[in-house]
């Protein structure tokens, strides 16, 4: 019986993906390039097991202990169809029993769909012996998931073709390029968000006056500038652009009709603290970034980690439980569990 178990990491974007272009809803083709760091599978990871069998009538997916409505989830169906179309016929005719689990809050702005779909795509490709590309298959499940298929610093290039053939994730530099870079996460709110990223970005694209400039000029310029900062390991520049792009995403959401707000009072308090800390240090030593959620991801260099954690715990004494420190923040890729 074919079976496989895979773990996959989350990735945190510092230049954000927020919008799909016309006709790109099924293939998930974005309106702009994005850029992220893939984290280690400790502490956060998705784990997916797939067993192929002729003993069940339909494919089944159990996510975090609950049975998913497979047939009515178009993305899951797309992923499975693509895998079967690229697999040997004797395997393609089998049904898949899938069990998946995240060891951190799901749908709370912590990139669970990225690690989740990457783990699913990777496990299915292995179990079905599919020739499909794991990153492309992950993207069909959830856009940002395509970046989790690679380690280190990863770009998701939007491409221009309607069929998505030039829309792909590429590793910019691997995890050894900037080993001093560390990532922290303050889990401020674990509940599921009210407005999904998928819905939020659709609304922003339709209604936020900021989106046109963001897509046409701002993000392309930022991609160039931050690529240079990563190449040169220039943390101050990296931090500056990272925080601006995070602020822009919040502004885009604030100017969306109806307004979308993922940040909470705690999120704003973190932002104020990080700016005050950098001011006191006389340079940027800590950067925040927020996705579609209240939780705060932070970047800093190894030399600052003790001071940063002390400052965070001093101002957020209750953060003890929720402050996750990713000691080996950059990893190679998803991996199969032996
Ligand atoms: C990102 N986010 O680049 C951005 C930043 C959230 C804010 O990718 O519709 O769950 O499944 O393609 O990938 C979240 O969007 O959306 C996301 P779909 P996804 O990481």
From TrEMBL:
Domain Diphosphomevalonate decarboxylase-like N-terminal: 8-168
EC number(s) on file: 4.1.1.33
Superkingdom of origin organism: Eukaryota
Pfam hit, one: MVD-like_N
GO terms under biological process: cholesterol biosynthetic process; isopentenyl diphosphate biosynthetic process, mevalonate pathway
Cited InterPro entries: GHMP_kinase_C_sf, Mev_decarb, Mev_diP_decarb, MVD-like_N, Mvd1_C, Ribosomal_Su5_D2-typ_SF, Ribsml_uS5_D2-typ_fold_subgr
SUPFAM superfamilies: GHMP Kinase, C-terminal domain, Ribosomal protein S5 domain 2-like
Assigned keywords, A-Z: ATP-binding, Cholesterol biosynthesis, Cholesterol metabolism, Lipid biosynthesis, Lipid metabolism, Lyase, Nucleotide-binding, Steroid biosynthesis, Steroid metabolism, Sterol biosynthesis, Sterol metabolism
Residue stretches spanning the membrane: none
Example of a GO cellular component annotation carried by this entry: cytosol
GO terms for MF: ATP binding; diphosphomevalonate decarboxylase activity
Catalytic reactions of this protein: (R)-5-diphosphomevalonate + ATP = isopentenyl diphosphate + ADP + phosphate + CO2
Enzyme class: lyase
Metabolic or biological pathway, per its Swiss-Prot or TrEMBL entry: Steroid biosynthesis; cholesterol biosynthesis
UniProt signal peptide: none
Domain Mvd1 C-terminal span(s) in chain numbering: 183-338
Task of the protein: Catalyzes the ATP dependent decarboxylation of (R)-5-diphosphomevalonate to form isopentenyl diphosphate (IPP). Functions in the mevalonate (MVA) pathway leading to isopentenyl diphosphate (IPP), a key precursor for the biosynthesis of isoprenoids and sterol synthesis.
Family: Belongs to the diphosphomevalonate decarboxylase family.
The protein, known as: Diphosphomevalonate decarboxylase
């Amino acid at each position: 019986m074919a079976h496989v178990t895979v773990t996959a990491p989350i990735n945190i974007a510092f230049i954000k993906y927020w919008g799909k272009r016309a006709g790109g809803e099924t293939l998930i083709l974005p309106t702009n390039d994005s850029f992220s760091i893939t984290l280690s599978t400790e502490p956060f990871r998705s784990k997916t097991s797939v067993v192929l069998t002729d003993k069940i009538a339909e494919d089944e997916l159990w996510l975090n202990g609950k049975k998913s409505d497979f047939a009515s989830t178009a993305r899951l169906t797309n992923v499975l169809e693509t895998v079967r179309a690229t697999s040997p016929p004797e395997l393609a005719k089998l049904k898949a029993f899938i069990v998946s689990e995240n060891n951190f809050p799901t749908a709370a702005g912590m990139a669970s769909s990225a690690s989740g779909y990457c783990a699913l795509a990777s496990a299915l490709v292995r179990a079905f012996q599919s020739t499909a590309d794991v990153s492309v298959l992950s993207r069909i499940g959830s856009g940002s998931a395509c970046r989790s298929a690679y380690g280190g610093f990863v770009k998701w290039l939007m491409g221009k073709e309607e069929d998505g053939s030039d829309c792909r994730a590429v590793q910019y530099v691997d995890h050894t390029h900037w080993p001093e870079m560390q990532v922290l996460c303050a889990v401020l709110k674990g509940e599921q968000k009210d407005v999904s990223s998928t819905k939020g970005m659709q609304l922003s694209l339709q209604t936020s006056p900021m989106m046109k400039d963001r897509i046409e000029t701002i993000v392309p310029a930022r991609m160039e500038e931050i690529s240079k900062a990563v190449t040169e390991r220039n943390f101050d520049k990296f931090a500056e652009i990272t925080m601006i792009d995070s602020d822009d995403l919040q502004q885009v959401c604030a100017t969306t009709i109806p307004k979308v707000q993922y940040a909470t009072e705690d999120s704003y308090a973190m932002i104020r603290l990080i700016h005050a800390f950098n001011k006191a240090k006389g340079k940027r030593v800590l950067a925040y970034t927020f996705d579609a959620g209240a939780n705060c991801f932070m970047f800093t260099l190894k030399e600052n980690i003790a001071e940063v954690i002390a400052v965070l715990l001093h101002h957020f004494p209750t953060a003890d439980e929720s402050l996750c420190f990713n000691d080996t923040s950059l990893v190679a890729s998803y991996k199969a569990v032996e």
